């Protein structure tokens, strides 16, 4: 069990309602919330949050356990503060409603079906913290190679749709309950869901060999009801291009950059506190290879290492990139450069960790259609901090499929394990 603690004097100074408030967290860095005004300043308890094994999210508050979560965590016994209270199921979630007049307690915590908000109280009500809780619904748990593939769904505030994500928890997750495991994010290519790589990428044996979890996000919002979103395989559904669209038609939902970086990964970190999202690497295939490089260059130091399988390396100069950048970002090419790995690398100023890339010479998207252009990335790196650091392997006779990807998963796993500080299990 671990605790985060706001500290006895941490919130004595009132924050204006709506202000961002950070609470120090002993293990996960910082929990961010928004201050909200609940009336007169009142002496009350300090805030203590605690992870209770088996429960997704909960709070230990002045000795009383409050909890929120989806139907998976409803079995828990919740003790609430004294005074009038109600605990009910609400759309499959838990509704906590507690009040007490006089100093001490007042308020309500209410979770929507998947994304909830938990209102926590610090030593005075003026400084109450409003913490968004992202709640994952487990759709399936599938035993695989000694660990488990967990299929999750949640409501996304970024895409305003339901989003699917798969998470592979290696056997160490179950066998070593005191361990905290690094994370590899795998971004898939055009047309993929979280299932393609989960089923055909064969990361599981290597996740178990080294002891890391694998996150497989989806490639776009689904069912956003945008006219034309399902018309082609390389734009719209299955082709979100991991960016935040600025063109009006797409900008409300097609926010895969913010979704992954600001919502999904922090949400998983809050729910799976035994995964170490501060020790995380990223990889991907094709559009996902582009995505992995792009996230890595835009967020120096956030990921310990990056690799890519047949990445779209210079989307500003290929047909897939023209279609997606043009459609989502408009005609202004300066906006395209903000997402193009072969542009971003020129300005990159983070760690000079080598980057591993494999591309097959029999990949028609490489040799025939010139969609991938890995040589452009190598060329761009020559004037950058990463000069000599792009380890590009052109593999004779390999195509673009998962037969190609899974042939080199082993090399990419070893690459990331090295920078995640992992050794093979004996
Ligand atoms: N016309 C094809 C193209 C789709 C395709 O090849 N998708 C690749 C990724 S391409 C770049 O991002 C892929 O990974 N497909 C899924 C798979 O399981 O192979 C089509 O529509 O299928």
TrEMBL record:
It catalyses: S-formylglutathione + H2O = formate + glutathione + H(+). Its main location: cytoplasm. Its EC number is 3.1.2.12. InterPro entries: AB_hydrolase_fold (IPR029058), Esterase-like (IPR000801), S-formylglutathione_hydrol (IPR014186). The keyword Hydrolase applies. Residues 1-24 are annotated as: Disordered. It holds the Pfam family Esterase. SUPFAM superfamilies: alpha/beta-Hydrolases (SSF53474). It is an enzyme of class 3 (hydrolase). It is found in: Cytoplasm. Transmembrane segments: none annotated. Keywords: Cytoplasm, Hydrolase, Serine esterase. Belongs to the esterase D family. Serine hydrolase involved in the detoxification of formaldehyde. This is S-formylglutathione hydrolase.
């Amino acid at each position: 069990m671990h605790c985060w603690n706001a500290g006895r004097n941490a919130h004595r100074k009132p924050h204006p309602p709506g202000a961002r408030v950070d609470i120090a967290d002993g293990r996960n860095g910082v929990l961010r919330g928004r201050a909200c005004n609940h009336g007169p300043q009142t002496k009350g308890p300090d805030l203590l949050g605690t992870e209770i094994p088996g429960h997704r999210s909960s709070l230990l508050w002045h000795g009383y356990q409050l909890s929120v979560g989806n139907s998976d965590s409803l079995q828990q016994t919740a003790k609430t503060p004294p005074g009038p209270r109600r605990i009910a199921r609400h759309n499959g979630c838990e509704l906590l409603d507690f009040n007490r007049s006089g100093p001490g307690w007042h308020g309500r915590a209410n979770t929507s079906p998947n994304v909830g908000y938990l209102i926590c109280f610090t030593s005075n009500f003026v400084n109450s913290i409003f913490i968004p809780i992202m709640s994952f619904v487990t759709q399936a748990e599938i035993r695989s190679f000694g660990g488990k593939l967990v299929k999750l769904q949640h409501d996304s505030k970024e895409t305003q749709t339901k989003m699917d994500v798969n998470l592979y928890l290696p056997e160490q997750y179950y066998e070593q309950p005191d361990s905290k495991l690094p994370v590899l994010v795998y971004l898939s290519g055009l047309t993929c869901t979280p299932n393609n790589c989960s089923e055909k990428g064969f990361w599981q044996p290597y996740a178990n060999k080294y002891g890391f979890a694998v996150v497989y996000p989806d490639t776009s919002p689904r069912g956003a009801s945008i006219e034309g979103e399902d018309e082609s395989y390389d734009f719209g559904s299955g082709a979100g291009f991991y960016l935040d669209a600025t063109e009006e038609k797409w900008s409300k939902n097609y926010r895969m950059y913010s979704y992954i970086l600001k919502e999904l990964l922090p949400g998983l970190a809050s729910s799976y506190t035994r995964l170490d999202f501060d020790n995380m690497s990223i990889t991907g295939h094709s559009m996902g290879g582009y995505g992995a490089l792009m996230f890595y260059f835009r967020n120096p130091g956030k990921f310990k290492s990056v690799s890519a399988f047949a990445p779209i390396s210079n989307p500003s100069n290929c047909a897939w990139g023209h279609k997606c950048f043009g459609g989502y970002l408009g005609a202004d090419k300066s906006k395209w450069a903000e997402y193009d790995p072969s542009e971003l690398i020129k300005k990159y100023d983070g760690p000079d960790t080598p980057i591993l890339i494999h591309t097959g010479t029999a990949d028609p998207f490489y040799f025939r259609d010139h969609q991938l252009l890995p040589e452009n990335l190598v060329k761009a790196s020559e004037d950058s901090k990463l000069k000599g650091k792009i380890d590009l392997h052109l593999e004779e006779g390999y195509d673009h499929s998962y037969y190609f990807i899974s042939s080199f998963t082993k090399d990419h796993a070893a690459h990331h394990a090295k920078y995640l500080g992992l050794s093979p299990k004996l």
